[in-house]
Amino acid sequence: MVAADKGHEPEAKLWAGIAIRTYEALAGRMAPSNPGESAKGGKFLESAMILRSAFIGRYGESGGDFILDPNRLKTWFMSNLEIDLDAAREMARNWKALPIADMHKLRSIKKRLLTLRAAMASGSLGADEELKAWKALEPILP
Question: Is the pLDDT assigned to residue 97 strictly greater than 80?
Answer without folding.
Answer: yes
